[in-house]
Amino acid sequence: MKEKVAALLKERVDSITEQLVKWRRHFHRHPEVSFQEQKTSHYIVEVLESFGVYTIETGIAKYGVVATLTNGNGPTIGVRADMDARTPIKEENQADYASIAPEVMHACGHDAHMAMLLGVAQLIAEDYQSNHFSGSVMLIFQPAEEDTDQFGKTGAPYFIKAGLAEQLNAVLALHVCPWQETGVIQLYKGPSMANIDNFCLTIKGKGGHGGYPQETKDPIWMSSFVLQGLYSLISRKLNPLQVGAISIGQLQAGKTPNVIPNEVTIIGTIRSYTSATRQQLITEIEKVSSMVTTFGGDVDLNIEVGEPALDNNAMLIDQVEQVTKNPNSAYRIVQEPYGMGGEDFGHFTAELPGAMFFLGCAKPGEPHVALHASNFDIDEHCLPIGLSIMYQTVTELLSK
Question: Residue 142: phi, psi to the nearest 5?
Answer without folding.
Answer: -105, 125
